[in-house]
Amino acid sequence: MQMDKELVEAAQQGDVAAFGQLYDRYVDKIYRYLYLHLRRREEAEDLAEEVFLKALKSLKSFRWQGVPFSAWLFRIARNLLIDHYRKGVAPVALDEGAPSSSPDVESMVEDRLSIAQVKEAMRELTEAQQQVIALRFGAELSIAETAQIMSKKEGAIKALQHSAVAALRRLMASSFPELGQISTRLTDNEQTPGLL
Question: What secondary structure letter does DSSP report for 136?
């Protein structure tokens, strides 16, 4: 697998396939990060596409400055989120759309409700805590990657993640007592991205 640096350099020279590989590598992580903040699948998809359009337009000016290419993409995503909120777009509680007719519809609905409740509780966290939860668990980034994106030391990210998860656990236990088992899973899986 090619390294990001090689792909970025090729894309800067006009190699569309190289940019396509970068897109394929990061689109899901960017989408999950945005989705945790936006609550609407369509908005997250639209903003994720906008992140890559903006990245493509600005790619020639991108310079390696000791941080990974992914950090640059997440900064674009964060700036677009800020712009999105400045426009006054109000988030909704759940995704629209009817459940599918698959045999496991009940567990899909429960998962969707659980994610919506976690997102609701996240609104009570500080901006930094929301960011660390979205990057670690939503985008499934490592502590090191999260530290680079947030411009913090790894130890600070670990402490921030710990306090964010503890706060989420307290919020969910008081706001949603029926979700005690989910908040316990959050605590048990603090070091394992991919929970949300």
Answer: I
